[in-house]
Specification:
The complex is a heterodimer of chains A (118) and B (107).
Chain A: E1 3-7, E2 10-12, E3 18-25, E4 33-39, E5 45-51, E6 58-60, E7 68-73, E8 78-83, E9 92-99, E10 105-108, E11 112-116
Parallel strand pairs in A: 2-11
Antiparallel strand pairs in A: 1-3, 3-8, 4-5, 4-9, 5-6, 7-8, 9-10, 9-11
Chain B: E1 4-7, E2 10-13, E3 19-25, E4 33-38, E5 45-49, E6 53-54, E7 62-67, E8 70-75, E9 85-90, E10 102-106
The chains are: A mainly beta (118), B mainly beta (107).
Amino acid sequence: EVQLVESGGGLVQPGGSLRLSCAASGFTFSSYWMSWVRQAPGKGLEWVANIKQDGSEKYYVDSVKGRFTISRDNAKNSLYLQMNSLRAEDTAVYYCARVNVAGNFDYWGQGTLVTVSS
Amino acid sequence: DIQLTQSPSFLSASVRDRVTITCRASQGISSYLAWYQQKPGKAPKLLIYAASTLQSGVPSRFSGSGSGTEFTLTISSLQPEDFATYYCQHLNSYPFTFGPGTKVDIK
């Protein structure tokens, strides 16, 4: 059974940093692109970043470029999102998702809440 | 960047109703479109990909159509478990934007 479990969310002050993790199991992690998607409270979904199987390609939404870094450790079956210079508008539930061979997000974690507030 | 719009934003319907949601792209995206269902407090669930291909395990009352700039998601006979918010997403080029969502509520 495919499982994605996010962790690392919490309350952080504006300008602070946080590192999210996503533990994957039930599939060959190193064979899939992976993604982070976020959802602000009461709002819609926003794609944040994608990373290729070997980490050689990374893509970001403009609003997080230069502040967020997506990475992965295939030996640990884990996906990460390093978030720096956090802003109030980064407050959201962050989901990790597996990207299937057709490019679609076929499995999602339960999400982890990041709150940026003083 | 490619923008997606959805209509309607909100839909009130009854069980066994036929429901259609439209997603329009600001430029042609071929068939690189997916549909997701999200229930409150839960992660999104992939329903349709490549505009019209049903994801494994998704009931056949869900169907998708369209290409280019206009797409539709149809639920042929709405069931109680289908009351949720539905999002389209394009995968034509980065950034992979989502539509604003359509909330389907009980009439």
